[in-house]
């Protein structure tokens, strides 16, 4: 018997990166369900057997509501929600901060997260689970990523508040807080910084690894494993918490 045998899940941002690794790990443990992601992301993804995709841009309130109606037809009752959709802006000082970009990032990372919980929570069974993919920037700042840090601080507040709210139905709400993860998105940002005079990508990754207790940065599989733990009955007494997955970042 696998940990999630027969359970139905909904994963936002599940077509690529960390979200896709989570979907793969949930599948290995017996779960199936629905992936919500951008149309282009779904078009280029191959979902595992037992999963259906619904295209949506979480910045569009009407489209988001419609997407959750479609998802409900595919999975009328959910055992598990994983909110992995998120965006990371480029580096910027506060003086150079683009307020339009601020709005766009918060629209996905904060408003989109709340919209996800709003529409999904009525369909999560009592005693189900929610896992939010947050960040180490949920509790620490970054001089070059004020917008992102603010959005992930908001995610922590949502986790703690939703845990109190949905806990009345026995639903556990937790978050996973990755440190630097060498996803395609991160490497692309590092490549851009290198072109602007920053560290070479290999050196930047090595520097990030050297700052950890394990001497390596965490992987998408590490994050997926932590998500599985929080989603499963093994974490039956855990709610309202954020689990760091950062290799022991100092």
List the helices and strands and how they pair.
Elements: E1 8-12, H1 17-28, E2 32-37, H2 39-43, E3 51-55, H3 61-74, E4 78-83, H4 99-120, E5 124-133, H5 146-166, E6 172-178, H6 184-195, H7 201-210, H8 220-231, E7 242-245
Helix pairs in contact: 1-8, 3-4, 4-5
Task: List the main descriptive attributes of the protein structure presented here.
alpha/beta; Rossmann fold; 250 residues; single chain; 43% helix; seven-stranded parallel sheet; 7 strands; 8 helices; 17% strand
Please give a structural write-up.
With 250 residues, the protein is of the alpha/beta class. It has one domain (8-179, 222-240): Rossmann fold, CATH 3.40.50. The chain has helices at 17-28, 39-43, 61-74, 99-120, 146-166, 184-195, 201-210, 220-231; strands spanning 8-12, 32-37, 51-55, 78-83, 124-133, 172-178, 242-245. A 7-stranded parallel sheet has the order 3-2-1-4-5-6-7, with helices on both faces. Helix 4 links the parallel strand 4 and strand 5. It is globular. The mean pLDDT is 95.
């Amino acid at each position: 018997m696998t940990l999630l045998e027969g359970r139905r899940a909904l994963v936002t941002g599940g077509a690529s990166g960390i979200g896709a690794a989570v979907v793969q790990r949930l599948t290995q443990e017996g779960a199936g369900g629905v992936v919500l992601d951008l149309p282009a992301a779904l078009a280029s993804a191959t979902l595992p057997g037992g999963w259906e995709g619904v295209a949506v841009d979480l910045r569009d309130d009407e489209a988001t509501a419609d997407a959750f109606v479609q998802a409900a037809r595919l999975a009328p009752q959910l055992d598990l929600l994983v909110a992995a959709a998120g965006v990371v802006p480029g580096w910027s000082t506060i003086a150079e901060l683009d307020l339009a970009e601020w709005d766009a990032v918060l629209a996905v990372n904060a408003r989109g997260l709340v919209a996800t919980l709003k529409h999904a929570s009525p369909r999560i069974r009592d005693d189900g689970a929610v896992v939010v993919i947050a960040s180490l920037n949920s509790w620490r700042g970054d001089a070059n990523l004020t917008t992102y840090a603010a959005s992930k601080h908001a995610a922590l507040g949502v986790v703690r508040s939703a845990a109190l709210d949905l806990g009345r139905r026995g639903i556990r709400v937790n978050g996973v807080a990755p440190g630097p993860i060498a996803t395609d998105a991160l490497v692309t940002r590092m490549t851009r910084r290198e072109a602007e005079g920053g560290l070479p990508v290999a050196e930047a990754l090595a520097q990030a690894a050297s700052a950890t207790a394990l001497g390596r940065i965490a992987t998408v599989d590490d994050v997926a494993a932590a998500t599985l733990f929080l989603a499963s009955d093994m974490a039956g007494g855990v709610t309202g918490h954020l689990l760091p997955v950062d290799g022991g970042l100092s």
